[in-house]
């Protein structure tokens, strides 16, 4: 079946379009603040502070527009031609030590702005340092940063970006205006994804869009990236729920039920054999764990106290996975916890 939007002749890309081959998350990265979805309060405050920006700390879940917002703001302030000289963008997870803060960041922060040609009059008289993923800066590096932020604030404004605000030391938090980025709600998610489908001439079943929105849990980057992949899986067809599930790596229900039944059997050998089979089939441990837990919550054989015990184990398992623990062992660990807590 042809695409609805192609049928309507909404838009076709020319081969010369330089964005043609970009992954969609970059192709559809908002270029201006007006194109950022769902972060109204943040946008209003930023637009009102454009002339004299404070130091900023953006925090919130992944894929909600933090990096896009500061890049769009910088582009609006300086214009594309001055972005290079007025903005230093560092990914703190690669450059997380105190040396980077002492040398690169400090040197840039204290450097004066050299004449900026004809935009000079409209441009604010400061530079911006973006420290993305600032939650991975070491504590020493954060301590060193606070002095630099204070000393050179006339010349340089900082934008720290992180997911976990609890990893930022209080002294830095108190020097910044905090901007909380919310998970993208269902309606905003749908609007943006529908817009991308229109632009790309992608047709889809409404249920497939619902599944995509449900699975991405407010992370627009994930949703766009999955849509991009799903559109390649079924190029000339409508995107279906199954295509989305396959792209996302959703584990089929019968496999999840099989795991839970192995736990109910109370046989360790049976549990281990089932877990081995599931991981050997190539499913992601984290995905398996999330789906098993959701099923457990609906299982009448497990009482409320026991669900709490399983929830506690899940917290530990999640931490181990984040620290690089073996996926097979972590799924096994969850299934053993469930087995012990089943009546
Ligand atoms: N609020 C938003 N409005 C429009 N597009 C968005 C928004 N949030 C995310 N996106 C899309 O997702 C992509 C990634 O967004 P971005 O890099 O800004 O997320 P982030 O919040 O910085 O995530 P992370 O914490 O993982 O770094 C963007 O290129 C854009 O396509
Ligand atoms: Mg980011």
TrEMBL record:
Compartment list: Nucleus
Entry-linked Pfam families: AAA, Rep_fac_C
One of the GO BP terms on file: DNA strand elongation involved in DNA replication
GO MF annotation terms: ATP binding; ATP hydrolysis activity; DNA binding; DNA clamp loader activity
Every AAA+ ATPase domain range: 52-203
Chief location bin: nucleus
Tagged with keyword Nucleotide-binding: yes
Cellular component per GO, a single term: DNA replication factor C complex
Xref: SMART domains: AAA
Protein keywords: ATP-binding, DNA replication, Hydrolase, Nucleotide-binding, Nucleus
SUPFAM superfamilies, sorted: P-loop containing nucleoside triphosphate hydrolases, post-AAA+ oligomerization domain-like
UniProt family annotation: Belongs to the activator 1 small subunits family.
Protein's name in the database: P-loop containing nucleoside triphosphate hydrolase protein
Native organism: Glomus cerebriforme
Top-level taxonomy: Eukaryota, Fungi, Fungi incertae sedis, Mucoromycota, Glomeromycotina
């Amino acid at each position: 079946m042809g695409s609805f939007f192609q049928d309507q002749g909404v838009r076709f890309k020319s081969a010369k379009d330089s964005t043609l081959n970009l992954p969609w998350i970059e192709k559809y990265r908002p270029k201006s603040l007006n194109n950022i979805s769902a972060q109204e309060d943040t946008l209003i405050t930023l637009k009102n502070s454009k002339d004299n920006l404070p130091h900023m700390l953006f925090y919130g879940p992944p894929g909600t527009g933090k990096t896009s917002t500061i890049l769009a703001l910088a582009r609006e302030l300086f214009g594309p031609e001055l972005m290079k000289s007025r903005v230093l963008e560092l990914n703190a997870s690669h450059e997380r030590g105190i040396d980077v803060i002492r040398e690169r960041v400090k040197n840039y922060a204290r450097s004066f702005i050299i004449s900026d040609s004809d935009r000079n009059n409209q441009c604010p008289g400061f530079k911006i340092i973006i420290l993305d993923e600032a939650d991975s800066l070491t504590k020493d590096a954060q301590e060193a940063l606070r002095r630099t932020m204070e000393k050179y604030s006339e010349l340089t404004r900082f934008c720290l970006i992180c997911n976990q605000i609890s990893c930022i030391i209080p002294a830095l938090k108190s020097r910044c205006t905090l901007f909380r980025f919310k998970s993208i709600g269902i309606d905003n998610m749908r609007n943006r994804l529908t817009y991308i489908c229109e632009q790309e001439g992608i047709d889809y079943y409404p249920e497939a869009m619902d599944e995509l929105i449900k699975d991405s849990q407010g992370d627009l980057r994930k949703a766009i990236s999955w849509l991009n992949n799903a559109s390649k899986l079924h190029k000339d067809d409508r995107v279906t729920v199954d295509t989305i599930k396959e792209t996302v790596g959703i584990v089929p229900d019968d496999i999840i039920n099989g795991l839970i039944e192995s736990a109910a059997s109370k046989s360790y050998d049976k549990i281990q054999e089932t877990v081995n089979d599931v991981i050997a089939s190539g499913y992601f441990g984290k995905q398996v764990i999330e789906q098993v837990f959701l099923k457990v919550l609906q299982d009448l054989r497990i009482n409320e106290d026991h669900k709490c015990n399983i929830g506690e184990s899940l917290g530990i398992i999640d931490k181990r996975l984040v620290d690089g623990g073996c996926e097979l062992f972590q799924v096994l660990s969850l299934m053993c916890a469930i087995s012990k807590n089943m009546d």
